[in-house]
Amino acid sequence: MLLFVKVQDRLLEYGVEIVAETLIEGLSRVKRCTDEGRALMSLDLQVLINGLQHFVSMNVKPKLQIVETFVKAYYLPETEYVHWAAAHPEYSKSQIVGLINLVASMKGWKRKTRLETLEKIESAVV
User: Fold this and answer.
1) Residues 71 and 38 sit within 8 Å (Cβ to Cβ)
2) According to the lineage, what is the superkingdom (predicted)?
3) How far apart, in whole angstroms, are the C-alpha atoms of residue 86 and residue 3?
4) Per-residue pLDDT tens over the stretch 52-63
5) pTM of the prediction?
């Protein structure tokens, strides 16, 4: 019985990790989003965390922190994205590029600024 509980807990842990990875991948592919939309994403994430806590014995918040960090990155100042990308190797290059493209589009960055930021990230992350 104890082995079954350990296996069940491990499977639930993997499941929560897959949910986090899937959410980040989806969020990185968003093409248009307002500040209000990002705030709603944060709220939705908190609802998900609270809902999962009702039937998962482990604390799911640390496993989903990676999603919250990604959502909050939208609010960074323009000058912080290169540093942020270097400090967060847990995100793939395509996820970071998606975030930068969204932020640049929604906050009205100049094309040159977006390309320079992506170039700096590319050279810092590689």
Assistant:
1) yes
2) Eukaryota
3) 40
4) 988 787 889 999
5) 0.89
